[in-house]
Amino acid sequence: MSSVAPAGKALAPPPAERPKQGRGLPVNLRQSGIYIAFALIVALFAVLTDGQLLSPQNISNIIVQNSYILILAIGMILIIIGGHIDLSVGSVVAVTGAIAAVLMVEHDVPWPLAILLTLLAGAAIGAWQGYWIAYFEIPAFIVTLAGMLVFRALTLTILGNQGIGPFPDEVRTIANGFLSGYLGNIGLGPLGGADLFTLLVALALVGGYVALGWRNRQGRIRYGQQVEPLPVFALRNALAVVVVMFMAVQLARFKNMPWVLVLLGALVLGSTLVMNRAVFGRHVYALGGNPLAARLSGIKVKSVSFWLFVNMGVLSAVAGIVFAGRLNQAGPTAGNMFELDAIAAAFIGGAAVQGGVGKVVGAITGGLIMGVINNGMSLLGAPSERVMLIKGLVLLAAVAFDIWAKRRAGTSR
């Protein structure tokens, strides 16, 4: 039969398609694979270490010991989403830690002012590199490779090739300290006592996570986009709640919540909101996905790239202060290989090599995977070369999985 409408009558619009519940596998492996892998790695090392990995003190150690890498991973995932790379972050960590040490220890600058000046120095370093990348159009690989050498040289010059310390107690507390039990401890039966404030913070966090996930799901349904089946959504959120609350209980049983975890949580929340809700975040994804299309659509791609590196400089300064505070001194070898750990965390966490894909939470998960591998292998007494071997294989597997998932998505259309 002909589909032509009678004269004077318009064709009725086709009925709106119901949102697809996903074909084939009920779980999007490209989005959820990293979390499944993280759970499997944690379970494996928990068994191999007879539960030591999940002890309250060890969980706290994993977070505190890897905090500066996780901070760098937040900035690195944004850089990679935007289609760039930054090889200089380890050297920037070193030079900003050196600046903080000179200000606080040698010149007795009050620690709040010294931290502010250090953050401004990090922003200036990021602006310097961002200018050459964005406005002079030198590839980020070259600019940051030069920066890796230049800022390491500046570190040696500032420190005179020797360590400077100790830092004020307040700075050391940021890196190694724990919140006081503001609301006291409560009994948890066989688990022992736990800080009530830490548990309430965790409950608020998981409540917000579930509410945001439900809101995003409903938004996708309204626009007819593909969503995962409701049972899968419920199971995924239930697992996330269980994991977060378990970690919170273990932290609350040890020495309450580390201050550096509060700082890290604020950075993750702020960065996630920027990338998911702000215009700047959408521009970053557009820049990494297709730079030419982004430019033609009116996005100020040079400005976006510039501010990405300013942000990376500030976060590197934060990591530099935390790392120096943890060691209680700034040293000339600080930050060695940090850039590789941050890049690995971003790629393991789901960033695409070509840019345009990635999430802040994914980068944090990737960083935690690296931290669990380091910690678990250490508990097993494995030599350092075996740890590097495992980490390298995990990185290779993550990138190979990303490429496989892309090809599978392309052939299934």
UniProtKB/TrEMBL annotation:
The keyword DNA-binding does not apply. One of its GO terms (cellular component) is plasma membrane. InterPro entries: ABC_transp_permease. Keywords: Cell inner membrane, Cell membrane, Membrane, Sugar transport, Transmembrane, Transmembrane helix, Transport. The chain crosses the membrane at residues 32-50, 62-81, 87-105, 112-132, 138-159, 194-212, 233-251, 257-275, 304-325, 337-353. Pfam families: BPD_transp_2. One of its GO terms (molecular function) is transmembrane transporter activity. It comes from the Bacteria. It is found in: Cell membrane. It is a multi-pass membrane protein. Residues 1-11 have a biased composition (Low complexity). Residues 1-23 are annotated as: Disordered. Part of the binding-protein-dependent transport system for D-xylose. Probably responsible for the translocation of the substrate across the membrane. This is Xylose transport system permease protein XylH.
